[in-house]
Amino acid sequence: MAAIKNNDEWLEFAEEVRDITPVYYSNEIARMRTKFTLEEEKIIHFVFSKLKPFEKNQTKVEINKSELFDVLHVGGMSKYKRYRELFKGIIHKTYVELVEANGTVSQGVVVTGVNWGEKNKEATVYLNEMFMPYIS
């Protein structure tokens, strides 16, 4: 899938994800979005929407696969395998390097792992604790 190129595509994307809780994250993390396909970006937003803002040090997010497929309007018999592969790609694409004002450099991946059992209704997405202050 390609990046959003015009207003009509943006409106279509907004319509598809309207049921997802809005998620806001810092500009530094937001800049990495250009690495993602539209489908991967929707997955990232879905995962971030499942974060509980008042839970301390939440680095493990449980997602319901059926809900993910419903919200993203995904069908077909191969959706489980396809989305397992998409999550694998997301892990590789979430590498970021943040440079603080004092010169400290933080490097790593935001999504560190996924437990995706074919027969499980739930999947677990693991996030890097180091980058949690940048996600709200």
Put the structure in a nutshell:
The chain has 136 residues and is an alpha+beta fold. It has helices at 7-16, 27-31, 38-49, 65-71, 79-93, and strands spanning 60-64, 95-99, 105-109, 111-115, 122-127.
The main sheet orders its strands as 1-5-4
Mean pLDDT: 78
What helical percentage do the residues reach? Answer: 25-40%
Q: How many E strands?
A: 5
Residue stretches low in confidence (pLDDT < 50, at least 5 long) are none
**Could you tell me the radius of gyration in angstroms?**
15 Å
Strand percentage: 15-25%
Major beta sheet, specifics?
A: 3 strands, antiparallel
What would you call the shape? globular
Distance between the termini: 27 Å
The helix-and-strand class reads alpha+beta
Separate helix tally: 5
SSE order in H/E notation?
Answer: HHHEHHEEEE
Keywords for this structure?
alpha+beta; two-stranded antiparallel ribbon; globular; 36% helix; 136 residues; three-stranded antiparallel sheet; 5 helices
If you had to describe this structure to a student in words, what would you say it looks like?
There is one protein chain. Helix content is 36%, strand content 19%. It contains five helices and five strands; from the N terminus they run H-H-H-E-H-H-E-E-E-E. Strands 1-5-4 form a three-stranded antiparallel β-sheet. The longest helix has 15 residues, at 79-93. It is globular, with a radius of gyration of 15 Å. The model has no long low-confidence stretch (mean pLDDT 78).
